[in-house]
Structure formats: C-alpha cells, structure tokens
Amino acid sequence: MSSDQFQTGRLTQFRELLERSDAALVLTAMAAFYLLFLGIGAILNYDVAGLISILGQVTFFTAVYALIVLALNLHWGYAGLFNIGIAGFMAVGVYTMAMLTAPPTGSPPGLGLPVAVGIVGGMLAAALVGLVTALPALRLRADYLAIVTVAISEIIRLTYNSPAFSTFTLPGGIALGTGGASGIGTVPSNPVQAIYYVDPSSAASGTTPIGAAIFGFFEAVFGVVRSAVIVDLTYGLVLAVVVFLVYTLLARVGNSPFGRVLKAIREDEVVAKSLGKDTNRFKIKTFMLGCALMGLAGVLWQGFGTGAVYPQAFRPELTFYIFIAVIIGGAGSNTGSVLGGAVFANLLFLLPQYLPNIIEQTFSIQADPNNFIAAVGPIAAGEIAPLLGYILNQRLPALRFVFVGVLLVYLMQNRPEGLLGHRTETAAAVNLSEGHTAAEQTGSDLTAPEGGVDDE
C-alpha cells in the first residue's frame, strides 16, 4: 500500500468517525474555531489576556446561539411549526427575570427576588406567552403561522418599549417597570460572579477562597490576567454545560414516542390525526417547551451576558439570524443545530468584527474618509487606500448581510438540507440494522414503548 493510499484511508476513517460520533464532530468544529481565533489574536498581537478573552467570546456566542437554535429546531425541525417570533419570547424571558430580581429601590423598581427564581420565572412566563399564542395561532399553518408569531414578537417588543409600562403599580401597591426605551439597567450580576467574589454585584468586595485560588493560578502561569476575563471565560463554559443539558433533553424528547408523533405531524398532520393523535395538544406542548427554552436563552444572553436589557436588542433580525443558523446546520438535527449556531456565531457574527483590524494591519491601510466621494476621488491619482478604508470602516457591517445572503443562496442550490440535514432519522425504538435476527427484533418489539401506547 502506497503512502497516498494509506493517508486516503486514514482520512476516510476520520470522516466516518465524525459522521458516527456527534461529540467528535462538535469538538472538532470547536477546536477549528478556537485555532482560527487564536490565529487572529496572534496576527493582532494580543497578549495572553487578549487571547483568553477571545476564547471566552467564541465560547459565549457559540453557546448562546446553539441554545436558541436548539429551541427553534424543536419547533421547526421536529414539529414543523414556522415560528419567527423568537426574539419576542426571548424578550419575555429576560424582562420577566429582570423585573423579578431587580432591587425594589432601582429605576425601574423590581421585586428583589433571588436569581434562581428570576430564571425559572422567565422560563415560565415565556412558556405562558407561548401557550396564549399557540391556542389560536396553531390552527394556522405555514406562512399564516409565521405572520402571527412575528406580529406577537413585535407586540411584545413595542409593549416593553412603551412609556406607559416604564413604571406601573400592581394591585397591593407593588411597583414594577420595564424602563420603556431606556430598558432595565439593574439586572443582577452574572451568577458566575458568586464563585469569585464575596459580593457578586461588586468586584471590589473581595475574592472568595476559590476565586483567589483561580486568579492566583492564572497569574502564576500566564502573568497578570484581568479577573473579568477569567469570569467571562467561566461563564462561557457554564453556558456550554447548559447547552449540553438542553441537547440531551431534546435528544430524549426526539427519540421518545412523543417526538415520533411530532415528526409525524411535521410530515403529514392529517395522517397523524387519522391515527388518533390529538395533534393540537402535541403542538401546544411543543410550542410551550420551545418558548421556555427561548426565554432561558434570552436570560443567559441578554440578561446576564450584557448586564442590561433594552427593547431594541429584540428586533426581528435576531429571529432571522437564528433561522439562518438552523438552515446552515440542517433542520431536524440537534447536532446540526449546535454546528449551525457555532458556524453563524463565529464566521458570520464574530469574524467580521475582527476583519477590519486584520486587513488594516496586514495591508497598512490608514485612510478612513467619511463619505463615498472622498473615498472614490483619490482613485484618479492611483490611490485605492481611501476606498478600502471606507469599505472596511464604514460598510463592512452592512456587507455582513451580503455574506449571509451569498451563503444562503449557495446552501439552497448545493445543500438545501444543511450540514447535517442528510442524516436518516430513526423511526423505531429497536435496532433494525443488519446483524439482528428477526426473533430478536420481534422480542424487542414486545417491550418497545412505541407499540400502540399513549404517546404522552
């Protein structure tokens, strides 16, 4: 065997391993993204703190996008529910959490409840709004359902933006508020802060024994590293654990009898009804669960991730970002959802933020005109640096949408099923692959949970 044949065989084995193992596929993709952004940090001459910070950003945005995409995949990929009101359900979750946990003396005032209560309350509120939306809306299909959900999302955003709800009083004299257009700036500190600081709301309160040990380790190994960078990296890793737990939950839901009914509804709801399934009840439960997860994603991203809540953070384009990530990964695949979220977060969200600095440093572009005429004029003299500087500094954020459009056109033409949408779904609760005898399959079928029992 020649060396070329040996290498080809090894590559084939590695590709087959990635196709069989979801964990290996996700870990390989994340390793590639970490190496990419470490290379970017090296090009930009970042110190150790800067490199750790960029790794924290990759982890954070990958985790939050993966979490929201998983929730949408439950709606669209499993049940075929065309929900484009994701931003609204995220807003319900994070605003509810903020109002429950903000201090009563804040502006706007809150209830001052523990953070755990706020997280659970945010999820329940998003699920409840999902129920109210689902009862009338799920009788509609396809484009009509999409129109209703995007309308609900805008109603939610405009309600939180309204001055009428900036501060209001509940029965019993309890004061609450959304802050109107100013939002809520008194969101509780990131829960990870409690690991490092005696008072989680203030880094000046002194470190805990665990915090002192971790900060001391980083200082001894890497030199002086800002404590905020370590806290942010830790929060990203916590979010990665949350994504794993949600992934496991949705995988079990998808492989359960309940999940198989959802897939039947997605393929042909009339057939599912003919088999005696109450499809409306299944869709309502699924819609509520997905909305609760979207509310959780809003809490973990816009609540604890930014430290403040503003209604403008939940504009409709956020919903379309999530749909793009689902299309990239492949609807109906939880692993595809994680990969789609990672690809979008890193290549279409984070990378364009670093491209101007990379190009300016690589090609020594210093010109930065403020208008198009000043950028194009010097071309007559053979100077293109002003035009390049104008594109990089003034128009690159807009070009991000061009990149997204080109990517979507390419996927629709060459891979409409997404990265992992080609995977065959398991329709049975038993192993029907070759190598299992008919007697084994028959014996397994007798104890399988699928055989005619209630799919609840």
Automatic annotation (TrEMBL):
Region (Disordered), start-end ranges? 435-456
Sorted alphabetically, the Gene Ontology cellular component annotations on this record are:
plasma membrane
A Pfam match is BPD_transp_2
Protein name (Swiss-Prot/TrEMBL):
Branched-chain amino acid ABC transporter permease
Q: Which organism is it from?
A: Halonotius pteroides
Q: Which InterPro entries match?
A: ABC_transp_permease, LivM-like
The family database entries (CDD domains) matched by this protein are listed as: TM_PBP1_LivM_like
Write the lineage as a comma-separated list. Archaea, Methanobacteriati, Methanobacteriota, Stenosarchaea group, Halobacteria
Keywords, comma-separated and alphabetical = Cell membrane, Membrane, Transmembrane, Transmembrane helix
**What Gene Ontology molecular function terms does this protein carry?**
branched-chain amino acid transmembrane transporter activity
Localization per record: Cell membrane
Q: How does it sit in the membrane?
A: Multi-pass membrane protein
Does the record carry Cell membrane as a key word?
yes
TM spans (from-to): 23-44, 50-74, 81-101, 113-135, 228-250, 287-310, 322-351, 372-392, 398-413
